[in-house]
Amino acid sequence: MPCKRTAATSSISITAKGYAVDSESTPFKIFDFERRAPAADDVVIRIHYCGICHTDIHQVYNEWHMSKYPMVPGHEITGIVEQVGSSVKRFRAGDHAGVGCMVDSCRKCALCKKDTEQNCADSCLTYNSTELDKVTPTYGGYSNIITVKEHFVCKIPKNLSLDAAAPLLCAGITTYSPLRRYNVDKNTRLAIVGLGGLGHIAVKLGAAMGAHVTVISTSESKRDDAVKLGAKAFLVSKDDEQMKTAVNSLDLIIDTVSAAHDVGPLINLLKFEGVYCAIGAPTKPLEIGAFALLMKRPTITGSLIGGMKETQEMLDFCGKHNITCDIEKIEATPETIKEAYDRTVKADVKYRFVLDILNAFK
Ligand code: NAP
Ligand code: ZN
Ligand code: ZN
Description:
Elements: E1 12-20, E2 29-36, E3 42-51, H1 54-60, E4 77-84, E5 96-99, E6 102-104, H2 110-113, E7 124-125, E8 145-149, E9 154-155, H3 162-165, H4 171-181, E10 189-193, H5 197-208, E11 212-217, H6 223-229, E12 233-236, H7 240-244, E13 250-255, H8 264-267, E14 270-278, H9 290-296, E15 299-302, H10 308-321, E16 327-331, H11 334-345, E17 352-356, H12 357-360
Parallel strand pairs: 10-11, 10-13, 11-12, 13-14, 14-15, 16-17
Antiparallel strand pairs: 1-2, 3-4, 3-8, 3-17, 4-5, 5-9, 6-7
Helix pairs in contact: 4-5, 4-10
The structure holds NADP nicotinamide-adenine-dinucleotide phosphate and zinc ion (2 copies).
One zinc ion binds near residues 53, 55, 101 and 170.
């Protein structure tokens, strides 16, 4: 039996339709539910597109052991504003808008006050989470409409197409945030590990910031793509000879890999006191041999998406540099979503699946 999740208030009044799973082993099905009617500070968005992030796959299959069902995944959302509440200032009907991984946070704690809402202890994720009342479930972007607090809605620059911009709302900000934190510029020797959804946009962003970008991949077949995306060098991680050529050369490694892997050989590529930043979230712990730590004295760190202010900054940066994602836009049906999940797990996507939501629920 699917666990039943009910809303805390009776103010829900917009009829919504989406795709949900009832458990880790059941297929997607049509799911009818309700979104709240807009409060004064809410924006209602007609969803046009939603990217498929590898996080959706981890969550649907309960790989992180924290899934709640029924689950409507999706946190790379773009669409058009349909309605706004009376105090909304930045949006009006017809605007291009985006929603990422969060839909609320306490907005009072020190982290919220310094625009780091993503690390707030009370942050509300777009799906597989609850609203601030800790009871009302949140449902994501594999659905036709969403009501979101203005603070958690971003403006999509008009020159970016809504389909190819959708993955910026997670993959874009998750990579942009550490690139900025570690001051990436023309003097930075940067490596991106894993050329998938996060990895490919990280290459574009790093190159636009002027860095010398190396892609480290398991797939020799992605070499030409990496160069077209802006990389200056490409290493196959399983080829020791290729890896040796880059020892002691890197300032910053951003690791986007979604599965368990040995981090020691990556640390060996860092300069003394270089930075290794994990953004991938494999289900098993990362392995790091002690000697890599002793010899390199590296900073080993991680990063979770980014705050709302920084997400808008990233979108404006992409607007200025005309950066969007390389996507495979697909019809949204339970079958096509399953096939896209299977192909993503096999690293067989160039480089992000984006669901055509508008046409699925016409
Ligand atoms: P993705 O599109 O599937 O890309 C992951 C890439 O990792 C693959 O393309 C592949 O690249 C590489 N890879 C896969 N299996 C591997 C293995 N066994 N060994 C070595 N490399 C392997 O996934 P994504 O959407 O970019 O997400 C990547 C990870 O980031 C996921 O775990 C996701 O949950 C996490 N994530 C974290 C945040 C955050 O806030 N920190 C935000 C979003 C997503 P190659 O073919 O080039 O080797
Ligand atoms: Zn994501
Ligand atoms: Zn907070």
